[in-house]
Amino acid sequence: MNVKKTQEYYQQLSHDDLCRCVYCQNYIRQIKCEYPAVAAYLQELGVDIEKPFETMPLEPDIDGFIEYIAVQYVVFGERKGFKKGIIDFVNIDVAEHHPSSKIEESHFIVEIYPIRLKWVM
Ligand SMILES: [Zn+2]
Questions:
Q1: Which of 48, 68, 91, 121 is an S-S bond match for 10, by CB 3.0 to 4.6 Å?
Q2: Distance set, CA 12 to CA 8, 28, 89 (Å)
């Protein structure tokens, strides 16, 4: 893993680069407050939890919550050194299936799942 390069990537990534759909906006608004331990873990990898590469939401349920089957993040470097784990009932693992990142440099995609948040949109 290349933590420094990952940090730089997330620093230069502006909110205009992120998906503007309501599902992503709902996620970005709450994720850091609701899952602080997961946010801290990702931060050690250089990842900003508020800048997801891809979210995979279900529809909001009648109780006013929404589940994300998985949320994916770009990490630079090789997978070597990455340890999968579970934090606060959230799995953190390498994603085998994801959209093209269009990034040329060595990188891989990490996904966290499942995530459950209020639907505030
Ligand atoms: Zn989106």
A1: 48
A2: 6, 17, 30
